[in-house]
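User: quick one, fold this
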Amino acid sequence: MAQDDLIDSCRSSYRLQTHHVIPRRDGGDNTPTNLATLCWYHHHIAIHRKGHRIDPHTPPHRRRLLPPRTWTGYRHPTNVEYLNPIQQQERAYQNFLD
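Assistant:
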């Protein structure tokens, strides 16, 4: 797994582990597209202890966590645009030129 496959905004490289985006019990498989690299904290504390889930609709380089299903009233943002690092750099350069 590459460092780019981490949870969005997590820069930790402490005890990296893989986790299924869609759990195997729910029909997920062991393919690379269904695996995400997580630091120890996000894997064991955020997901397994607190019940957060990985948003399967986010790209591998910008995986986001969804809150536990028990959190009522949460609405996932629908206007989020995900850019890979090259696209981010191009956008920043274009903003600089403008």
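User: anything notable?
Assistant: The mean pLDDT is 81.
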